[in-house]
Each structure stands twice: as C-alpha cells, then as structure tokens.
Specification:
The complex is a heterodimer of chains A (about 425) and B (about 750).
Chain A: H1 2-18, E1 24-30, E2 35-38, H2 53-60, E3 73-78, E4 86-87, E5 91-100, E6 106-116, E7 121-123, E8 131-134, E9 139-147, E10 152-163, E11 169-181, E12 184-192, E13 198-206, E14 212-221, E15 225-229, E16 232-235, E17 238-241, E18 248-249, E19 254-263, H3 265-269, E20 277-289, E21 293-298, E22 302-305, E23 312-318, E24 322-324, E25 329-337, E26 343-349, E27 355-358, E28 363-368, E29 373-382, E30 386-390, E31 393-397, E32 402-406, E33 410-415
Parallel strand pairs in A: 4-11, 24-33
Antiparallel strand pairs in A: 1-5, 2-3, 5-9, 6-7, 6-8, 6-10, 10-11, 12-13, 13-19, 14-18, 14-20, 15-19, 16-17, 20-21, 20-22, 23-25, 25-29, 26-28, 26-31, 27-29, 30-33, 31-32
Chain B: E1 8-10, H1 29-33, H2 43-47, H3 74-82, H4 96-107, H5 111-120, H6 149-155, H7 160-172, H8 178-184, H9 219-227, H10 233-241, H11 272-284, H12 291-300, H13 307-322, H14 328-338, H15 366-382, H16 395-403, H17 407-420, H18 436-451, H19 455-462, H20 492-504, H21 508-530, H22 544-571, H23 575-588, H24 593-607, H25 610-626, H26 635-647, H27 651-664, H28 669-681, H29 685-698, H30 700-703, H31 706-719, H32 723-737
Classes of the chains: A mainly beta (about 425), B mainly alpha (about 750).
Chain lengths: ~425, ~750
C-alpha cells in the first residue's frame, strides 16, 4: 500500500504538468429514474394560534398535492440525487454532455463513450461520426444505455477529440468508475416425487437496499421437461398469487417459488435416460424498482442429480386415493429394468396387518430387457380404516437370485362406506 | 454436484473473466478520492460535481496512452471481496456464496499483484490505481440533514441567557398602551421577592380572591422588568398576553380585532371565561405583579357587554375543541383538584409538565451567509428579512414572521414570549403555570422547529411534556383561573406533531404507537358522541347542532391521524399497510378520493408494480367520467398517465402528457417541472434548462421551490463548468423573496 501511495503522488505531479486548458467540458450524469418529491406536512386547526397560516403555506407550496396537502407523496419529479447503486441485470443509463466553455467555435468534435468491464470493452456512443462544429455555449448531448451483464468494476471511458480554430488537434479523456453489485441471491432445492416428477423450490432473496417488485419469475425447462408453476391458486377462473397482495420483496426478504417438472413422455418412457446429472432448466427473473427501473437476470442452467433407482424400479401408474373398507380395489404397477442386463422376474405379494393382496403370489413376470418396463394390474383390499400404506411387494430376479423389496409404495385413504346411511 | 435435496447456490451467470492485456489504466487512490479532471478546470469546480454526477476517476491523458484501452480490472477486483456487505455472510452456513467467491477469487489477484502490475507499467505512463472507497451510496433517505446550528445553539451556557435576552427586552413590548403604562408607573417594580418553588399556600380555593398566585421567581423576567424602566414594561407585558390592541386571541377568535385600537379598558375581552384565560395567567406568573394593576385590569371585565351570551358560544366551541380523555391517573388527580380534596400545591412534581427553552436563539439566515460568501458583503447587505426584533412582540408579529417564511426568527420570537411567561431558557424542570396561550406558543415553536427540520431540538423541548397527559395540562387543574372549563390545554395539532416527531428521528415505531393512542381517543370520543353523551363520556346534554358539529370535528381529526399513520408507514416502506390506510381515509374525506387513489397509484409505481398502479389510475378515470368530464380534460388523469409512461421508460409520451396538462392549466408548477425533467431524459438538456429557467424568472413565487431549484442546479452542473455563476444568480433571486427558513442546500453552492 505504501508503495502505491508514493507512486500515486508521483503520478499526480505528472498529471499537473500535463494539465492544459481545454475549450470543451465533458459532464456525465447517471440517469437513474427520477424520484417523487415528498413533503413534510405540519398542520394546525383554524382556532390554533397560527390560524390558517400553516394550511395556506402548504397550499402555496407547489410540491403538495392540491386538495390533499397532508399526503406526503407528491407529484413533483426530482432528478437523481446521487449515483446510487447499480445491479446486475439493470440498465445503466447516462447523460453525456460536451459543452463549449470557450468563446470560439470548435470543430470536428468526436465524443466516444466506451464501457470497460473486466472482460470486454463496449462502445456505447449512439453515433461515431464527428460533429463538424460547436459554437460557444452550445453542447453535444448523448444519452447512453447499457444493460449490465457483469458483476464488479466497470469504467466508463469518455474521450473527446476536437480541433481548435487555430487548427490544433486536442484530445482528452475522463474515466468514471462504478461497481455493479449482485441484486439477488437464488438458492434451489429439488424434491423427487414417487412418480417421475421433480419439484423445484427456488428461494429468491432481495439483497439490494430497495424494495423490488417481482414482475416475472419463471422456469424455462430444458428440452426433457414440461413445467407447471405452482405459485398461484386458481379458483373460479381467478388465479391468486400464493404471495397474496405482497407483490414486492423488501430488502433482504426471501420468497419461495415452486415448480413441478414432468419429464416429457419420450424421456419418461425410458427411465434410464434421466440418470445422473441432468439439466433441468433455468430461472428467468424480471424485477422492477423505483418508477419502473427494470432489471432482468437468468440463472445458469440448474442441474439435478437424478435419484438412483437401483436395478429394478417399481412405480405406480394408477391408484385410487380413497377406497372403501374391505372392498377390493385395483392398482397398476410399472416395473422398469434400470440395470444393464436382462432380468427374469418373479412377483411375490405379502400381506401386512392392514393390506391384503388378492390373487396368486409368486407369479412369473417373464424376461425384462434393460430399460424395458411392464405394467401389471394388481388387486388388494384393506381391513383397517384410515390412511394405509401399501407394502409387501417383493421382486426376485431369478438369474441372480436377488430379491428387491418394495414397501410403503403409496398410501390410500380407507373409509367405511356405511357410517351414515341417512345421508 | 450434489445429490437431490441439497441446497445449491446459483449465481447469475457471470461470464468467464479473461485477462485483459492490452491496456493498463491503473486507477489511483488519490485521484479517485478527489476526482480530477484532465481538462484542467480548477479543482474546486470539479469538487462541486455533486454526488449524482459520476465521479471522475482518473487522469491519464498522455496522447500515447490512447491506444491502450483496456483496464486490468482484475487487479481491482480484490477489493470486491470487501464490497460484499450486501451478502449477509453470517446468515447461512450453506455453501451459497462459495460459488461466487471462488470465481471472484480466481479472478482477483492478490494486492501484491496489482502492485507488481503497477511497477511494470511505471515506465512513463501515468498510472492511477483505484482504491475502492465504497462510493456506492445507499439511495434511500436523501433527507437533508439538520443544519449544524442546532448543536451550537445548544451549547449556550445558561449564564449568558438573561444577558442575551436583555437586548430584546426593550423592544418586546414596543406598542404597549401608553395610557395604562402611565398609570402603572408609580407602582414601580421590585424585582425581588418570593422564592417558594411552588404556589404559596395563600392560594386557597377562593375564585374571587385574586391574590396573585405566586410561582417561582423568574430571573429573566425580573430582569425584564428592571432593565427597561423607561416604558413601564409590566403593563406591556400584560398586554402582550392580555388585552393589547394587537393581541390575537386564540381561544376566542371573536375577540380578534386588531384594527380596534381601543384602550384596554374597553371590553375587548368578550367573555368572563375567556377573560379569565388572559388575566389569571398574569396573576399567576410574574410573582412581582403588585396588586393594584391587577385590580385595574380586573375592573375591565365586569364591564364587558353580554359576557354570558358570548361565553356560551365560545364555551361550546372550546368544549368541543378541548375535549380529551386523560389517562386514569391523571383523571384521578383532576377530580381531586376539582373536588378540592387536593390543592395543586400538594401534587407531586413528577406529575407536572415543566417545560423550558432548551436552546437559545436560532437566529441566522443561511441565504445571507451564502451571499456574503459568494456575492460579497455589499450584496449581502441588500438582503432584508424580518427578524424577531423587527416585528411586534406578540402573536401578530409571530404570524407575520410565519407567513413571510421567516421561521427561524419566529422560533426566536416564541422563545421570547415563552421567556416572558416564565418558561424560558433553563426553566425546564421548574414548576410553572400553563395557559392556553403558553401552550399555543409551544405548539407554534415546536411546529416550526419541525418545519425547519430541527428535529433534535424539537424532541429536546418536547421532552418535559411527556406524553402530553400531565394534570397541569388540563383546564380542570386551574379551577380558579378557568372556572368551569374542561378539557385539554394542549391543542390537538400539538398531539399530532408530538406523535409525528419520532419518525423523523428514525423511531417510526414510536410514532405509530403515539398515533394509535390518539386514534383510539378520537374513536372513543366519537362513540361517546354517537351514544348521546358528551365528548368526554359525561351525561351532558348537547344540542343536535352541537353534536353534529362535534362529530364532524372529531371525524376530521381522526382522518388527520390516519393520514399521519399512512405517511409514517410509507416512510417505513411498509407499502401494503400504507396503501390500506390511505384507502380507508377515503371514507372520511370523500372529496379527496381522486388525490388519494392517484397517490396510492404512485406508491405502486414507486415499488415498480405498474399493473396495480394502472388499476388505481383507472378508478380515478372512472370517477372523472362519472362526473361528466372526459379523461383528457382532467389534470389528475393526465398526470397519472404521464407517470405510467414514465415508468415504462417512455419519456416522450410522458412529456406529451405533462404538456397537455399545461394546456389545461398553464401555470401548473408540477407539470412544468416534470415536463422539463422528461426533456432531460430525452437528451434535450438545453430545452429543459430553458424551460425551468424561464419559469423561475417569470413566476418566482411558484418556482423558487426546493425541488425545482434542485433540478435546475443539477442541470446547471451538467451543462457547463460555469454552474457556480448561474447558481449565484438563483441565490439572488431567492434572496429577494424567501425568508430565513429557505433551505439553501438545494442551490448546491456548497
């Protein structure tokens, strides 16, 4: 650090030597959105000492809302008061003004605005052609816009070159540095359902200092999945957001979004396809802040480790949710060979305390090649009321003499149909 | 990669950082702190680049450095690590930040590296290194800071006060009534006397026996009287609080007749009750007051014509206005005073409000100071504003100072008047008697302090009042002084002010608490009225007119409190509750429906929720249509549309809308200003400036406003390097028109 200090002092000297009167002045101002002026109402009643004075003062104040002077949020726009923060995904806008401070006409003025990031340099000027002349007290104006795509230090480099009346070519530059910060913190979590469905929970936290209106948070699925958003509850054709009326996120507030992903049929059929690390998709987030200042971000591709199903996977294709006590009902199981070899399977059904299987236990299912699956309808009944877990299926691969146990495959609600004959 | 179920952090895609190799602009710590500008303008000018201007980082202007264009930002990134306070590291032990960190770290080189880099490039180039002074400013709360004056004011040592006050003394009662003064001269004054810290026992409850109730000697007061023996100050003093020709009665507006330069003997004071208000404080206050003048003054009110008739009128008004529900403890004290079980003397000091000035004069005129600094002494001499000395030393003078926006001087004048009342500097914590007028003075003083954004001062002086529920702040406490009068001496507006104050001192929760307390009293009073009782719940019979008037008054007070709540919630950024509260005000103030709905819409725009804002704006339009106006003829509809365009980044259409408001209402300052702002965003600086400038010069009454001037000076700064001269021209315009309360910060001269 010390070394730096010394050398910068030296730099300064050099700068001073290089100083030179320029005819043009360059001014840059960041154009964040204007803000609404808020006033501070102090009122009294007409029988108080000041009488109607306070009221009159407020009525005469141009920044108050006429007819409702006690409302602090006025309509008067004020220009941005400081540089503020800029966040990834927002648009950086800036006013660049080159003013002729001198009393002579200046010729061939070229104003160049570049944005230097850690990885690239972008030209932001609207036009790259030179202005042929600029009279005294006149200025060249440019408003530049750039959607910020990188975090970290950015430097706006403005260069002005021009020719004086004497034909002297002059040039100067100015540098404006700013930091781009991260606006959001996104965490994700996957939940695997018994079916092929995957649930994605995304926690999005506002790590800026201002409230943020979440205009859009959507999941763009990869080609293997279809997505359903579970962030609104619809009833009577009206869908209501699960976040209620709170359409915005306060600083440091976090929101949870939930998505359900279903593999497209062509991928679901071959369960083996979705195995190991798979790409799920990416989140697309659009937010707005003060007076519509907009920001947009996409996450990188979300990846998920598909759950391992072992050699043989047993899933349910059809099962009723509610059944009657002691009445047989049907379910359909799907058995998929997830291994690399062909299997010869035998199905055994063991009764539990509440679940009683109907039909023959120990039947042969035949050969099943890798990635192939078969569906088998089964019948069973329950002797106990309440939420009952379906258990007791056993698959044995006769080639390897290996048995796979399937318990707690699903649950059904068992009710007694005779409780209330009068209804 | 994780197995399912594990949390992962994702990070907005940051492209891989490649090492820029071409150019080396290293940014210099010092150059960054005090931005310089290679085009060799004086540094002071550059310094004046205000906050909103981007900071110029460095100066490397040698033509040969031109080619090398890429900054090795990598070397800068190490500071980014520290830049992360936004990520609440502590909050989670999960692996969240890891990802980001890793990238950052890999991109960032250790500090030595940048040093090394610097050395490499040292051979002749100007190299500037950036020191990452966190220049990102939190965008919230651009509230102006309270001027420094307050601190210095507070440092006043108490000894000097009386002396300082001696100066104004001469003028304080300038327009006294000479006649009476003459009469009083022989009495002279003994600035001696009575030291009992509270009332003497001589003050037993005999209403007619107007032996001056004696309270604590007040040095400044006695000084007052002795120092100016030329005119008899005593009578003047009374005048200022009693029947002076220029006196404006607060509690009895009927008595307000400044034009009537009648001698004090004439029955200006209309009602015995009201008269009591004015007389007794005199009796109780300056313990030095001799008996004779009292008697003389007393002689005044029996001669009042029809005292009873007017008494009835005022007392109804007073009753309505003063009604309040004291806390249980206070009520008990008041009852015991009223039933003469306890004399006020016996009441514990802890339970009394004992206010006193906490700081001395504020006097000062920031506009003049600035003129002195920028335009020279001569120009500054031309600045003429009213001061506390140049007006009548009474309520009329006070009003004059307020209406001419000389609030600092007005605060000083309230100080003098309160000093005369025995509640001056250093009197805090000493028992005193309150009157209607003294509390009104306090209210005005504190209100002005708030208006001047001197919140700490206001808080300090509010403190002895507690929560405005001390027994001695109720009329019942002074049965002799205010016979038969009931209710609170504290004006309702003072309660609201008291409640609103903490929010300006970053204690919005306290504000809400207090407002809720006021609200519940308002509601209780309203329900009492609706049940056929009097305001305070007593079984008094009110006439129907009276009851309706009272209900109307209390409903308007309730809505005032709700406004305060909504405003406070808005400042707390609790938008949803704020919106709800604003919405509920519509029920009380139906004529403000349009403004309130538009205001709610603007809140949603502020949040960024444009769709909901539009919904509210549509309600406004429907309301207008039902009134038979087409939408285009209504300024608020047009204004709302403009704001929506603005929020869609459509500045051109926003400008058109503001312009069409101007076609309907060419003098609309808001539309004018906003149209100019839109022009700037459209890249038309000169036009925008031209528009604002001409407005300010054509109609300074409307446009010499903080917000407009702020915009104008900002544009001056953007326009040229000679902004200072132009700002000085504005200063001159301000100097001709504005009082001492003008907030000079918006001129951005310093």
């Amino acid at each position: 650090m010390q070394v730096k200090g010394q050398s910068s002092a030296a730099d300064k000297m050099e700068v001073n030597q290089a100083k030179q009167e320029h005819l043009l002045a360059l001014k840059v101002m960041r154009l964040t959105k204007p803000t609404l002026f808020t006033n501070m109402p102090v009122t009294c009643e007409d029988r108080d000492l000041p009488g109607d004075l306070f009221v009159r003062l407020m009525k005469d104040d141009p920044s108050t809302v006429k007819g409702a002077e006690t409302l602090i949020l006025g309509e008067m726009l004020t220009l941005p008061q400081n540089f503020g923060n800029i966040f990834l995904g927002e648009t950086f806008s800036s006013y660049i003004s080159v003013h002729n401070d001198s009393n002579q006409i200046v010729k061939d003025i070229l104003v160049k605005a570049d944005l230097q990031t850690s990885s690239q340099r972008l030209n932001l000027s609207a036009s790259n052609s030179a202005v042929s002349e600029l009279k005294p007290e006149c200025c060249i104006d440019d408003v530049i816009h750039h959607e910020v795509k990188e975090i970290g230090t950015h430097i706006l480099v403005c260069a002005v070159s021009y020719t004086t009346q004497m034909g002297e070519k002059l040039y100067f530059r100015k540098f404006f540095k700013f930091q781009v910060l991260k606006p959001l913190d996104v965490k994700t979590k996957f939940y695997n359902a018994e079916t092929d469905e995957v649930f994605l929970e995304a926690q999005i936290q506002n790590i800026t200092t201002s409230p943020m209106f979440m205009e859009k948070v959507s999941l763009e699925p990869s080609m293997m999945y279809n997505v359903t958003e579970l962030n609104s509850v619809s009833s009577d054709n009206e869908s209501e957001s699960t976040f209620g009326k709170m359409s915005y996120l306060q600083p440091l507030d976090t929101r949870q979004y939930l998505y359900c992903l279903k593999p497209k049929p062509e991928f679901a059929e071959k369960a083996g396809v979705i195995k190991g690390v798979t790409v799920i998709g990416k989140l697309d987030i659009v937010w707005k802040t003060n007076l519509g200042e907009r920001g947009r971000l996409q996450t990188s591709q979300l990846q998920r480790m598909a759950p391992g199903y072992g050699d043989v996977r047993l899933s349910l294709e059809l099962i009723p949710d509610t059944v009657s006590l002691e009445e047989p009902f049907d379910i359909t199981c799907k058995i998929t060979n997830c291994s690399e070899r062909t299997m010869d399977l035998e199905l055994e059904m063991c009764n539990t305390r509440s679940v009683h299987w109907c039909g023959v236990s120990g039947r042969q299912l035949g050969k099943l090649s890798p990635n192939a699956s078969l569906s088998i309808p089964l019948t069973l009944l329950s002797s106990v009321q309440g939420l009952q877990s379906i258990s007791g299926l056993r698959l044995t691969d006769t080639f390897l003499k290996r048995t796979y146990e399937y318990d707690d495959i699903a649950q059904v609600c068992v009710v007694c149909p005779y409780t209330s004959p009068e209804s | 990669m994780q197995l399912n179920g594990a949390d992962e952090t994702l990070e907005a895609s940051v492209p891989p950082q490649t090492d820029p190799t071409e150019e080396s602009i290293d940014l210099d710590a010092e150059a960054f702190v005090s931005p310089q500008d290679d085009s060799s303008h004086s540094e002071s000018l550059v310094d004046k680049l205000n906050d909103q201007m981007m900071e110029s980082v460095m100066i490397s202007d040698s033509p040969n450095s031109e080619e090398e264009d890429v900054v090795p930002i990598d070397s800068l990134l190490e500071q980014n690590e520290e830049e992360e306070p936004k990520t609440p590291d502590d909050a989670d032990t999960e692996e969240r930040i890891e990802d980001v960190r890793n990238k950052d770290v890999s991109a960032a080189e250790p500090e030595e590296a940048s040093g090394a880099l610097f050395k490499e490039e040292n051979e002749g180039e100007k190299i500037v290194q950036v020191d990452d002074k966190r220049e990102t400013v939190a965008p919230d709360d651009p509230k102006p800071e309270a001027p420094k004056t307050q601190e210095s004011a507070l440092e006043m040592d108490s000894d000097s006060t009386p002396k300082d006050e001696a100066v104004p003394v001469c003028t304080i009662f300038s327009q006294g009534v000479q006649l009476k003064a003459q009469a009083l001269i022989p009495d002279g004054f003994q600035p001696t006397l009575v030291k009992s810290p509270s009332f003497t026992i001589g003050n037993t409850e005999t209403p007619n026996k107007l032996v001056p109730q004696v309270c604590q000697p007040s040095p400044s007061l006695s000084k007052f009287f002795t120092d100016s023996s030329a005119v008899n100050p005593a009578s003047d003093f009374f005048d200022s609080f009693t029947t002076s020709t220029s006196f404006v009665s607060i509690s009895n507006p009927n008595a307000e007749s400044p034009k009537a330069a009648a001698p004090p003997e004439s029955p200006l004071v209309s009602a015995p009750t009201a008269a009591g208000t004015y007389f007794t404080p005199v009796a109780t206050k300056p313990q030095v007051a001799p008996a004779e003048p009292m008697n003389k003054l007393q002689a005044v009110f029996p001669s009042g014509d029809d005292p009873f008739g007017s008494a009835l009128v005022t007392s109804d008004l007073d009753k309505r206005r003063d009604a309040w529900l004291p806390s249980e403890d206070t009520r008990r004290v008041l009852i015991s005073v009223a039933t003469q079980q306890v004399s006020p003397v016996q009441i514990d000091r802890e339970q009394l409000a004992m206010p006193g000035l906490k700081f001395d004069n504020l006097q000062g005129d920031a506009v003049k100071d600035l003129m002195q600094r920028f335009l020279g002494d001569q120009a500054a001499m031309k600045r003429q504003v009213l001061s506390a000395n140049s007006v009548e030393q009474n309520f009329l003078g006070l009003k004059r100072l307020i209406s001419t926006k000389n609030w600092r001087a007005a605060v000083d004048l309230t100080g003098r008047l309160l000093t005369a009342h025995g509640q001056g500097y250093g009197k805090s914590g000493q028992p005193t008697n309150h009157t209607t007028d003294s509390l009104q003075l306090w209210f005005v003083r504190l209100a002005l302090l708030v208006k001047l954004s001197l919140f700490q001062n206001a808080e300090l002086e509010f403190e002895p009042f507690g929560n405005l529920d001390h027994p001695d702040l109720y009329y019942e406490y002074y049965p002799t002084v205010y016979p038969g009068r009931r209710g609170s001496m504290v004006p309702f507006s003072m309660r609201v002010l008291h409640a609103e104050l903490p929010q300006y001192l970053q204690k919005p929760q306290e504000t809400l608490d207090r407002l809720h307390r006021i609200k519940s009293v308002c509601q209780k009073i309203l329900s009492n009225l609706q049940e056929g009782l009097a305001e305070d719940g007593s079984m008094m019979n009110l006439t129907q007119d009276n009851r309706l008037a009272s209900i109307q008054l209390w409903r308007s007070r309730l809505s005032r409190v709700m406004y305060s709540m909504a405003n406070c919630l808005l400042m707390m950024k609790d938008y949803m509750l704020a919106v709800e509260t604003y919405h509920s005000i519509i029920e009380y103030e139906p004529e403000q429906r349009v403004q309130l709905l538009s205001g709610i819409g603007r809140i949603f725009l502020q949040i960024g929720d444009i769709r909901t804002a539009e919904k509210y704006f549509q309600d406004v339009e429907k309301g207008c249509q039902s009134k038979g106006k087409t939408a285009n003829e209504d300024t608020s509809v047009l204004m709302n549309r403009a704001f929506v365009y603005l929020s869609q980044n459509n500045y051109a259409d926003a400008h058109t809308c503001f312009s069409s408001v101007l076609e309907l209402d060419p003098k609309n300052p808001v539309a004018n200003n906003n149209a100019a702002v839109c022009l700037l965003y459209l890249g038309r600086l000169k036009e925008s400036l031209g528009q604002l400038e001409s407005l300010v010069h054509k109609d300074p009454a409307l446009y010499l406003h903080e917000s407009v001037l702020f915009n104008l000076t900002t544009m001056y700064e953007l326009e040229s390097s000679r902004s200072t001269q132009k700002k000085q021209a504005l200063l001159e315009a301000v100097a001709c028109r504005e009082g001492d309360s003008f907030n000079v910060q918006c001129l951005k001269l310093v």
